[in-house]
Write a structure and sequence with these properties.
By secondary structure, this protein is α+β, with helices and mostly antiparallel strands. It has four helices and seven strands. The chain is about 25% helix and about 35% strand. Strands 1, 2, 3, 4, 5, 6 and 7 form a seven-stranded antiparallel beta sheet that branches.
Length: about 160
């Protein structure tokens, strides 16, 4: 496993990781944060609670806080994960806005149209460049745009 990019902060973090074929997590885990799992290359299976999901290119897995999950069978993949807490959102948004932004987490897996995935990639690059502890960080703007993309049905492909 190679971690190319990793920014960690108690309220927000982003990481890009490449897994070799055959990578399996031995144990379930959960986070106290929301997780957006973007599959950028390869194929992967994820076990969420007691269901197995096939994750393919342009798919996004969405994990609510405290949701048990683990990587399952892996054919080799590259993924970016974005982690953020509700506390992070509360620093910038109203309750109404937070509810709207988190609405996409009612679905475990979504498939994005290719052109939407390209926009997602640009947003991920923007997030990677930001300094979460910086005085002028714009992470909350990029994150809101990313989450709002998932609220529109037009972004999804048929699975």
């Amino acid at each position: 496993m190679v971690a190319d990019v990793s920014h960690t902060h108690p309220l927000f973090s982003i990481e890009y990781v490449v897994h070799d074929a055959g990578h399996n997590m031995t144990n379930f885990h959960y986070h106290d944060a929301y997780e957006l799992y973007f599959l950028e290359k390869g194929y992967h299976q994820i076990l969420i609670q007691d269901s197995i999901y096939d994750i393919k290119l342009h798919d996004v897995a969405l994990f609510k806080p405290n949701l048990f999950h683990k990587s399952y069978q892996n054919q080799g993949c590259a993924r970016t994960c974005v982690y953020f807490t509700e506390r992070f959102l509360r620093l910038y948004f109203t309750e109404r806005a937070i509810k709207s932004l988190l609405g996409c987490f009612d679905t475990e897996i979504i498939s994005l149209k290719e052109e939407v995935f390209a926009k997602v990639k640009r947003l991920l690059k923007s997030l990677e460049k930001e300094n979460v502890s910086g005085e002028n960080d714009r992470i909350f703007i990029h994150l809101a745009e990313l989450l709002s993309l998932y609220s529109g049905a037009a972004v999804f492909q048929e699975r």
